Amino acid sequence: MQWLQQMRLAKYLAHAGVASRRAAEGVIADGRVTVDGELVTDPARDVDDHSVVLLDGNALEGPEQRVVYALNKPVGVVSTARDTHGRPTVLDLVPSRGLRLYPIGRLDARSSGLILLSNDGELANRLTHPSFQVPKRYRVKVGGSSVSERALRILRAGVALEDGLTAPAEARRLGAHAIEVTIREGRKHQVRRMCAAVGYPVVDLERVAFGPLRLGALKPSQHRLLSVVEVERLRAL
């Protein structure tokens, strides 16, 4: 079946469900991919539907069926494909049915809420690359005194962290010790560090929205397959 005219090798691997396009570039650079019997380390190498592409000596058969799952990640589960310390991962909670799924974005083990899993590397790149500024909304319980208007103003203006000033966030008070924060960046532990910087250590953090998707009625550890309409909304971001 003819499924493409011509495509860069990194994109081919992403469409085949190997990894996101950026991660696929690393796989190619590591010398793990051959095209028509030739070792290729250039991710920009063009391939077509007649090319024989092998990863670690195993043939890739073109793109898998594209799927995207929404998962309510519970506390204690890590958002990686595998964990060297033997902790449960998000992939343990979603049946792969033979597909090579990987998480889109990260939530640390102490945090819970909405995370996506997919075998669509191109979509993963669009949802996580900083240039697309996909909004992610969190509900945060904090310690210390009652949340002040001054702290909210700083969050909205941008917080000075050790790796630079954050972009302006949306922030509103939900209660004396609870706030809702929306960011469009993806720095490590960003929301936790932002809250700590304005004097409020995080006690509990839950992601409740990712772009147009909402956590909704999903209970911890539950997942659901996104509809075609929902996936198209993600692609349109």
Specify Rg, calculated over alpha carbons.
20 Å
Largest β sheet strand count, sense and barrel closure: 9 strands, mixed
- Structure annotation, total helices: 6
Helix share bin:
10-25%
Tally the structural domains.
3
Whole-number mean pLDDT: 91
Terminus-to-terminus distance? 31 Å
Mind telling me the CATH class of the largest domain?
Alpha Beta
Report on this structure.
The protein is of the alpha+beta class and 237 residues long. The chain folds into three domains: 7-59, RNA-binding S4 domain (Structural Genomics Hypothetical 15.5 Kd Protein In mrcA-pckA Intergenic Region, Chain A); 68-130 and 217-235, Alpha-Beta Plaits, CATH 3.30.70.580; 135-210, Alpha-Beta Plaits (2-Layer Sandwich), CATH 3.30.70.1560. The protein has helices spanning 9-15, 21-29, 121-128, 149-157, 190-197, 228-235, and strands at residues 7-8, 33-35, 38-39, 46-47, 53-55, 58-59, 68-73, 102-104, 112-118, 136-142, 160-161, 164-165, 170-175, 178-183, 202-210, 213-214, 223-225. The strands form four sheets. Strands 7, 8, 9, 10, 13, 14, 15, 16 and 17 form a nine-stranded mixed beta sheet that branches. A hairpin with a 2-residue loop joins strand 5 (53-55) and strand 6. The protein starts with 6 loop residues before the first strand and ends with a helix. The model has no long low-confidence stretch (mean pLDDT 91).
